[in-house]
UniProtKB/TrEMBL annotation:
Source organism per UniProt: Ensete ventricosum (Abyssinian banana)
Pfam families xrefs: Acetyltransf_CG (PF14542)
Domain N-acetyltransferase: 32-129
Gene3D superfamilies in the record: 3.40.630.30
UniProt protein name: N-acetyltransferase domain-containing protein
Length: 137
C-alpha cells in the first residue's frame, strides 16, 4: 500500500510543469536544475542616445536622454534530451513577462526568440526595441 502511494506521488511530480527561476546575478532565466536557460544582458540605450545628442547638439534628441534599459536576449539553450517540448518557450514567457513588469524593452538577438518565439507569440512584439525609447519610459 505504502509503495503504491509513493508511486502515485512520483507520477504527479513528473507531470508538474518545469519551474523557471530568475537568476539575477547571472542574468538568466533558468530551470531549477540550471540545465536550460535564457541568457540576457541589460543594456542602457539611453547612454547611446545621450552620446548622439552630444555630438549633433540637437535639443530634441537631448529630451530622450536617460531613456531606457533594454533586455538583450542573447542566447537560449535547452539540453538535447529535452528539446521540442516547449521548454525554450517557457523560458521566453518568463523573460518577456519580467521585461514587461519592469517596463523594459527587449532586443531579440537569439534566433530562437526572433525567428520562432516572437512569430508564435506576436503579442510580445510591442516590447521589441526598435531604436526608439518607449514614450512612457
Ligand atoms: N532558431 C530558431 N528556431 C529554432 C532554433 C534556432 N536556432 N532551434 C530550434 N528552433 C525551433 C524548432 O524548429 C522548433 O520548431 P517546431 O516546434 O516547429 O518543431 C521549435 O524551435 C521548438 O520550440 P521549443 O520546444 O520551445 O524549443 P526547445 O525547448 O526545443 O529549445 C532551442 C529550442 C533553440 C533553445 C534548442 O534547440 C537549443 O538549445 N539549441 C542549441 C542552442 C541554440 O541554437 N540556441 C538558439 C540560438 S541563441
Amino acid at each position: 500500500m505504502a509503495k503504491r502511494a509513493d508511486d502515485d506521488s512520483s507520477t504527479v511530480e513528473e507531470a508538474r510543469p518545469p519551474v523557471i527561476v530568475w537568476n539575477k546575478e547571472r542574468e538568466r532565466f533558468e530551470t531549477e536544475d540550471k540545465e536550460a536557460f535564457l541568457q540576457y544582458h541589460l543594456r542602457g540605450v539611453g547612454l547611446v542616445v545621450a552620446a548622439a545628442a552630444d555630438s549633433c547638439d540637437d535639443p530634441e534628441q537631448e529630451k530622450r536622454e536617460g531613456a531606457a534599459v533594454v533586455m538583450d536576449m542573447v542566447h537560449t539553450y535547452v539540453p538535447r534530451s529535452k528539446r521540442g517540448m516547449g521548454l525554450a518557450a517557457l523560458l521566453c514567457d518568463a523573460a518577456f513577462a519580467h521585461a514587461q513588469r519592469h517596463s523594459m524593452l527587449v532586443i531579440p538577438t537569439c534566433s530562437y526568440v526572433s525567428d520562432t518565439y516572437l512569430p508564435r507569440n506576436p503579442a510580445w512584439n510591442s516590447l521589441v526595441y526598435n531604436g526608439e525609447p518607449k514614450a512612457s519610459m
